Amino acid sequence: MRVIRESSREAVDRAVFEEFCAALRRRPAGVIGLATGGTFSAFFARIAQAVAAGELEMGEVRATHLDEYLGFDHDQRGGMVHELTSLCPPLRQMLDEDRFWPVPASGDAGAVQEHEQRLAEVGGVDIQFLGIGRNGHIGFNEPGTSFDLGFHRVHLAPTTRADARDRFAPDEPPYEAVTAGPKSILKARRIVLSAVGAAKAPAVRAMLEGPIDPQCPASCVRYHADSVVYLDPEAAAELGESAAAMS
Ligand code: PGA
Predict the structure, then answer these.
(1) Which of 6, 165, 202, 210 is exposed most, by the fewest CB atoms within 10 A?
(2) Is 7 exposed, middle or buried (0-12, 13-18, 19+ CB in 10 A)?
(3) Is the pTM of this model over 0.90?
Protein backbone atom coordinates (compact mmCIF):
# COMPACT_ATOMS: atom_id res chain seq x y z
CA MET A 1 0.00 0.00 0.00
CA ARG A 2 1.18 3.52 -0.78
CA VAL A 3 0.11 6.48 1.34
CA ILE A 4 0.32 9.84 -0.40
CA ARG A 5 -0.03 12.98 1.66
CA GLU A 6 -1.24 15.70 -0.69
CA SER A 7 -0.92 19.41 0.05
CA SER A 8 -4.65 20.19 -0.11
CA ARG A 9 -8.09 18.79 -0.71
CA GLU A 10 -7.92 20.07 -4.28
CA ALA A 11 -4.72 18.09 -4.82
CA VAL A 12 -6.50 14.93 -3.57
CA ASP A 13 -9.36 15.62 -6.01
CA ARG A 14 -6.86 16.02 -8.87
CA ALA A 15 -5.03 12.80 -7.96
CA VAL A 16 -8.27 10.81 -7.82
CA PHE A 17 -9.39 12.21 -11.19
CA GLU A 18 -6.00 11.26 -12.65
CA GLU A 19 -6.44 7.72 -11.29
CA PHE A 20 -9.80 7.56 -13.10
CA CYS A 21 -8.31 8.78 -16.40
CA ALA A 22 -5.39 6.36 -16.10
CA ALA A 23 -7.81 3.46 -15.50
CA LEU A 24 -9.75 4.40 -18.66
CA ARG A 25 -6.51 4.43 -20.65
CA ARG A 26 -5.33 1.09 -19.21
CA ARG A 27 -8.55 -0.75 -19.93
CA PRO A 28 -11.04 1.21 -22.05
CA ALA A 29 -13.71 -1.49 -21.70
CA GLY A 30 -12.97 -2.25 -18.05
CA VAL A 31 -15.10 -1.84 -14.94
CA ILE A 32 -14.77 1.15 -12.64
CA GLY A 33 -16.02 0.73 -9.07
CA LEU A 34 -17.35 4.07 -7.87
CA ALA A 35 -17.83 5.39 -4.36
CA THR A 36 -20.30 8.02 -3.18
CA GLY A 37 -20.22 10.67 -0.45
CA GLY A 38 -18.88 14.17 -0.02
CA THR A 39 -15.29 13.04 -0.58
CA PHE A 40 -16.14 12.32 -4.22
CA SER A 41 -18.56 15.08 -5.20
CA ALA A 42 -15.85 17.27 -6.83
CA PHE A 43 -14.52 14.18 -8.60
CA PHE A 44 -17.89 13.44 -10.23
CA ALA A 45 -18.39 17.07 -11.18
CA ARG A 46 -14.93 17.02 -12.80
CA ILE A 47 -15.77 13.89 -14.82
CA ALA A 48 -19.05 15.45 -15.99
CA GLN A 49 -17.26 18.67 -16.94
CA ALA A 50 -14.49 16.84 -18.82
CA VAL A 51 -16.99 14.74 -20.77
CA ALA A 52 -19.09 17.82 -21.62
CA ALA A 53 -15.96 19.67 -22.79
CA GLY A 54 -14.95 16.76 -25.00
CA GLU A 55 -11.75 16.21 -22.97
CA LEU A 56 -12.77 12.78 -21.70
CA GLU A 57 -14.39 9.92 -23.58
CA MET A 58 -16.10 7.23 -21.51
CA GLY A 59 -15.95 4.85 -24.50
CA GLU A 60 -16.87 1.28 -23.66
CA VAL A 61 -16.13 1.45 -19.95
CA ARG A 62 -18.57 -0.08 -17.45
CA ALA A 63 -19.27 1.22 -13.95
CA THR A 64 -20.56 -0.15 -10.72
CA HIS A 65 -20.57 1.15 -7.15
CA LEU A 66 -20.28 0.06 -3.55
CA ASP A 67 -23.60 0.27 -1.82
CA GLU A 68 -27.25 1.34 -1.82
CA TYR A 69 -29.92 1.89 0.80
CA LEU A 70 -32.22 -1.08 1.08
CA GLY A 71 -35.11 -1.02 -1.38
CA PHE A 72 -34.14 2.30 -2.96
CA ASP A 73 -35.12 3.03 -6.58
CA HIS A 74 -32.52 4.50 -8.91
CA ASP A 75 -34.28 7.87 -8.82
CA GLN A 76 -34.99 8.00 -5.10
CA ARG A 77 -33.67 11.10 -3.33
CA GLY A 78 -30.83 10.32 -0.95
CA GLY A 79 -30.01 7.06 -2.75
CA MET A 80 -26.55 6.30 -4.11
CA VAL A 81 -27.57 5.78 -7.74
CA HIS A 82 -29.58 9.00 -7.57
CA GLU A 83 -26.51 10.81 -6.19
CA LEU A 84 -24.18 9.42 -8.85
CA THR A 85 -26.46 10.09 -11.82
CA SER A 86 -27.38 13.59 -10.55
CA LEU A 87 -23.77 14.64 -10.01
CA CYS A 88 -22.53 13.02 -13.18
CA PRO A 89 -24.92 12.93 -16.18
CA PRO A 90 -22.62 10.60 -18.18
CA LEU A 91 -23.44 7.97 -15.53
CA ARG A 92 -27.16 8.51 -16.15
CA GLN A 93 -26.49 7.78 -19.82
CA MET A 94 -24.49 4.68 -18.88
CA LEU A 95 -27.36 3.54 -16.64
CA ASP A 96 -29.81 3.94 -19.51
CA GLU A 97 -27.45 1.97 -21.78
CA ASP A 98 -26.98 -0.77 -19.17
CA ARG A 99 -23.29 0.03 -18.77
CA PHE A 100 -23.67 1.26 -15.17
CA TRP A 101 -24.59 -1.68 -12.98
CA PRO A 102 -26.08 -0.65 -9.65
CA VAL A 103 -25.87 -2.74 -6.50
CA PRO A 104 -29.15 -4.70 -6.22
CA ALA A 105 -31.02 -2.59 -3.66
CA SER A 106 -33.43 -5.43 -2.85
CA GLY A 107 -30.61 -7.32 -1.17
CA ASP A 108 -32.27 -10.42 -2.62
CA ALA A 109 -29.78 -13.32 -2.71
CA GLY A 110 -30.52 -14.16 -6.37
CA ALA A 111 -30.11 -10.57 -7.53
CA VAL A 112 -26.87 -10.20 -5.57
CA GLN A 113 -25.50 -13.41 -7.06
CA GLU A 114 -26.41 -12.21 -10.56
CA HIS A 115 -24.63 -8.90 -9.92
CA GLU A 116 -21.47 -10.65 -8.71
CA GLN A 117 -21.59 -13.03 -11.65
CA ARG A 118 -21.94 -10.18 -14.12
CA LEU A 119 -18.88 -8.46 -12.64
CA ALA A 120 -16.90 -11.70 -12.70
CA GLU A 121 -17.85 -12.44 -16.33
CA VAL A 122 -16.30 -9.20 -17.57
CA GLY A 123 -13.13 -9.78 -15.59
CA GLY A 124 -13.99 -8.06 -12.30
CA VAL A 125 -13.54 -4.50 -11.12
CA ASP A 126 -10.37 -2.84 -12.44
CA ILE A 127 -10.22 0.03 -10.02
CA GLN A 128 -12.28 0.52 -6.88
CA PHE A 129 -12.59 4.01 -5.41
CA LEU A 130 -13.23 4.13 -1.67
CA GLY A 131 -13.98 6.70 0.96
CA ILE A 132 -13.74 6.01 4.66
CA GLY A 133 -16.35 6.67 7.33
CA ARG A 134 -15.60 8.37 10.65
CA ASN A 135 -15.96 4.94 12.22
CA GLY A 136 -13.54 3.32 9.76
CA HIS A 137 -16.18 1.83 7.49
CA ILE A 138 -15.67 1.27 3.76
CA GLY A 139 -18.80 0.93 1.68
CA PHE A 140 -21.35 0.19 4.40
CA ASN A 141 -19.10 -2.35 6.13
CA GLU A 142 -19.47 -1.20 9.68
CA PRO A 143 -17.01 -2.06 12.48
CA GLY A 144 -17.12 -5.76 13.28
CA THR A 145 -17.84 -6.90 9.68
CA SER A 146 -15.96 -10.08 8.79
CA PHE A 147 -13.37 -9.63 6.04
CA ASP A 148 -14.76 -12.83 4.49
CA LEU A 149 -18.12 -11.30 3.60
CA GLY A 150 -19.11 -10.60 -0.01
CA PHE A 151 -22.18 -8.51 -0.93
CA HIS A 152 -24.57 -8.46 1.99
CA ARG A 153 -27.38 -6.61 3.75
CA VAL A 154 -26.40 -4.41 6.71
CA HIS A 155 -27.84 -2.43 9.61
CA LEU A 156 -26.27 1.01 9.53
CA ALA A 157 -24.21 2.22 12.50
CA PRO A 158 -25.47 5.29 14.44
CA THR A 159 -22.56 7.46 13.17
CA THR A 160 -23.33 6.43 9.58
CA ARG A 161 -26.99 7.37 9.99
CA ALA A 162 -26.02 10.64 11.68
CA ASP A 163 -23.70 11.51 8.78
CA ALA A 164 -26.50 10.72 6.31
CA ARG A 165 -29.05 12.89 8.12
CA ASP A 166 -28.58 15.97 5.90
CA ARG A 167 -29.15 14.08 2.66
CA PHE A 168 -32.53 12.81 3.89
CA ALA A 169 -33.81 15.77 5.92
CA PRO A 170 -36.59 16.33 6.89
CA ASP A 171 -37.02 12.55 6.65
CA GLU A 172 -35.14 10.01 8.77
CA PRO A 173 -32.13 8.26 7.21
CA PRO A 174 -32.71 4.59 6.39
CA TYR A 175 -31.69 1.85 8.82
CA GLU A 176 -30.55 -0.74 6.30
CA ALA A 177 -28.47 -1.01 3.15
CA VAL A 178 -26.82 -3.46 0.76
CA THR A 179 -23.06 -3.27 0.36
CA ALA A 180 -20.12 -4.88 -1.34
CA GLY A 181 -18.30 -6.68 1.49
CA PRO A 182 -14.57 -6.55 2.24
CA LYS A 183 -14.07 -9.75 0.25
CA SER A 184 -15.72 -8.28 -2.87
CA ILE A 185 -13.89 -4.95 -2.47
CA LEU A 186 -10.48 -6.63 -2.19
CA LYS A 187 -11.05 -8.44 -5.51
CA ALA A 188 -10.54 -5.18 -7.44
CA ARG A 189 -7.23 -4.99 -9.29
CA ARG A 190 -6.43 -1.59 -7.84
CA ILE A 191 -7.88 0.25 -4.85
CA VAL A 192 -7.82 4.02 -4.48
CA LEU A 193 -8.96 5.25 -1.08
CA SER A 194 -9.16 8.94 -0.35
CA ALA A 195 -9.92 10.88 2.80
CA VAL A 196 -10.21 14.61 3.38
CA GLY A 197 -10.97 16.71 6.43
CA ALA A 198 -10.20 16.57 10.14
CA ALA A 199 -13.23 14.40 10.97
CA LYS A 200 -11.52 11.51 9.18
CA ALA A 201 -8.15 11.80 10.97
CA PRO A 202 -8.84 9.21 13.74
CA ALA A 203 -10.24 6.68 11.25
CA VAL A 204 -7.27 7.22 8.90
CA ARG A 205 -4.87 6.61 11.76
CA ALA A 206 -6.72 3.45 12.82
CA MET A 207 -6.71 2.21 9.21
CA LEU A 208 -2.98 2.76 8.69
CA GLU A 209 -1.43 2.39 12.13
CA GLY A 210 -3.85 0.19 14.07
CA PRO A 211 -4.18 -3.58 13.79
CA ILE A 212 -5.60 -5.09 10.61
CA ASP A 213 -8.87 -6.01 12.19
CA PRO A 214 -12.63 -5.97 11.40
CA GLN A 215 -13.05 -3.33 14.14
CA CYS A 216 -11.58 -0.97 11.53
CA PRO A 217 -13.01 -2.33 8.25
CA ALA A 218 -10.80 -0.02 6.15
CA SER A 219 -7.69 -1.71 7.57
CA CYS A 220 -8.38 -4.66 5.24
CA VAL A 221 -7.13 -2.48 2.36
CA ARG A 222 -3.60 -3.04 3.77
CA TYR A 223 -3.92 -6.64 2.52
CA HIS A 224 -4.22 -5.39 -1.06
CA ALA A 225 -0.96 -5.32 -3.01
CA ASP A 226 -2.01 -2.55 -5.41
CA SER A 227 -3.65 0.02 -3.17
CA VAL A 228 -3.07 3.73 -2.71
CA VAL A 229 -4.39 6.16 -0.12
CA TYR A 230 -4.61 9.89 -0.88
CA LEU A 231 -4.93 12.19 2.12
CA ASP A 232 -5.22 15.92 2.59
CA PRO A 233 -3.26 17.48 5.51
CA GLU A 234 -6.29 17.44 7.85
CA ALA A 235 -7.06 13.76 7.29
CA ALA A 236 -3.36 12.90 7.73
CA ALA A 237 -2.96 15.04 10.86
CA GLU A 238 -2.91 12.17 13.37
CA LEU A 239 -0.46 9.96 11.49
CA GLY A 240 2.95 9.22 12.96
CA GLU A 241 6.31 9.30 11.23
CA SER A 242 6.04 5.74 9.93
CA ALA A 243 3.05 6.60 7.73
CA ALA A 244 4.84 9.74 6.55
CA ALA A 245 7.66 7.49 5.42
CA MET A 246 5.21 5.43 3.36
CA SER A 247 4.49 8.38 1.05
P1 PGA B 1 -18.08 10.95 2.90
O2 PGA B 1 -18.39 9.42 3.17
O3 PGA B 1 -17.27 11.01 1.65
O4 PGA B 1 -19.43 11.59 2.74
O5 PGA B 1 -17.34 11.47 4.09
C6 PGA B 1 -17.37 8.50 3.07
C7 PGA B 1 -17.83 7.16 3.59
O8 PGA B 1 -18.64 7.14 4.55
O9 PGA B 1 -17.36 6.14 3.07
Answers:
(1) 165
(2) exposed
(3) yes
Protein residues with CB under 6 Å of any ligand 1 atom: 37-39, 131-133
Burial class for 175, CB neighbours closer than 10 Å (0-12, 13-18, 19+): exposed
Give the pLDDT confidence score for residue 242 in this predicted structure: 59
pLDDT surpassing 80 at residue 246: no
pLDDT, tens only, 109-141? 999 999 999 999 999 999 999 999 999 999 999
Which ligand 1 atom sits nearest the alpha carbon of residue 132?
9
Rounded Cα gap, residues 44 and 175, in angstroms: 26
Give which of 192, 181, 199 is closest to 134, Cα–Cα.
199
- 111 Cα to the center of ligand 1, angstroms: 26
Ligand 1 atom with the shortest distance to the CA of 138: 9
Top mutation candidate among 36, 140, 145, 232 for ligand 1, by most atoms within 8 Å of CB: 36
Neighbours of 164 (CB within 10 A): 18
**Exposed (0-12), middle (13-18) or buried (19+): which is 60, by Cβ within 10 Å?**
exposed
Q: What is the mean pLDDT of residues 150-175?
A: 95
What's the pLDDT score for residue 245?
43
